[in-house]
Design goal:
eight-stranded parallel barrel, TIM Barrel, alpha/beta
């Protein structure tokens, strides 16, 4: 009986320790309520999906994908081609704001494409919005104009600059971005990510695919006084694996499950 009581006490202590550790990890909705999730109520990067994710109790915010239109306006959209997900054709960077405003996703609810400016006011006071910059104009097979992108960020983040963080996968933009914004490098190769941290000291940290990193690598990044966020977390098993790696935060495709697993009933 004494052994059973001792074992039970160890179990309770372990559970409490695990709970305290997990509660400190930030949780964000990936592209709203999940990227390309069949069971999602709304299409990723739609205003409806973002609003729902931000309104879930204890949600720390949302990650969204942004592209620059031909008019220099930032729009939420993930894929390279409009025909992949909408009733339009071509690339966001080739279309005017008027043309983009008339497009809808190919879903039952036919959500409209949305400007970044129309999503920013949805943030609650204690929430953060991560902007994953999509730099390629696939129609021209080249990067969008960086100067125009910086102008758009400056103009369209007015009043929200301190509540927005930038994700960039093009290392040659990192220094300029990091001088103005909290900037993170998106990478699948952690060894390359380590080199980026050492060579670009102004960046705040890395955004890494959940399956591409382990606990020791996460600890190394944190030891450099950098943050690390994990994405591509599409199941309860993936959520638990991500939490076990002890990142700064996660971008969860199953946001409700991630928040519940962190210890809050919804």
């Amino acid at each position: 009986m004494r052994f059973v009581n001792y074992a039970f006490l160890l179990f309770i202590l372990f559970a409490c320790t695990k709970s305290e550790h997990v509660k400190n990890i930030l949780v964000f909705g990936h592209a709203g309520m999940g990227l390309s999730m069949d069971n999602s109520i709304y299409h990723d990067n739609s205003k409806e999906a973002v609003l729902l994710a931000l309104n879930l109790p204890t949600s720390n915010g949302v990650e969204v994908d942004v592209r620059l239109s031909a008019d220099g306006t930032l729009w939420l959209y993930h894929d390279e081609w409009l025909e992949a997900e909408t009733d339009g054709q071509g690339c966001v960077s080739e279309e005017s704001d008027l043309q983009l405003s008339e497009l809808s996703y190919q879903t039952l609810k036919q959500e409209k494409l949305v400007k970044l400016m129309d999503v920013l006011p949805l943030l609650n006071e204690d929430q953060t919005l991560f902007l994953d910059l999509k730099q390629v104009n696939s129609c021209q097979n080249e990067n969008v104009d960086f100067e125009q992108l910086m102008i758009a960020l400056e103009d369209q983040l007015t009043g929200f600059k301190t509540r927005v963080k930038i994700i960039c996968s093009y290392k040659y933009w990192l220094n300029d971005l990091a001088q103005q914004y909290d900037t993170f490098y998106s990478i699948d190769d952690v060894e390359e990510g380590k080199e980026i941290i050492l060579n670009y000291p102004l960046i705040k940290g890395l955004v890494v695919r959940n399956s591409a990193i382990n606990t020791q690598e996460t600890s190394w990044i944190k030891d450099q006084h950098k943050e690390v966020y994990l994405y591509d977390i599409r199941s309860l098993k993936g959520i638990r694996q991500a939490y076990a790696r002890n990142p700064t935060g996660i971008f969860a495709d199953e946001l409700r499950k991630a928040l519940e697993e962190r210890g809050y009933a919804l």
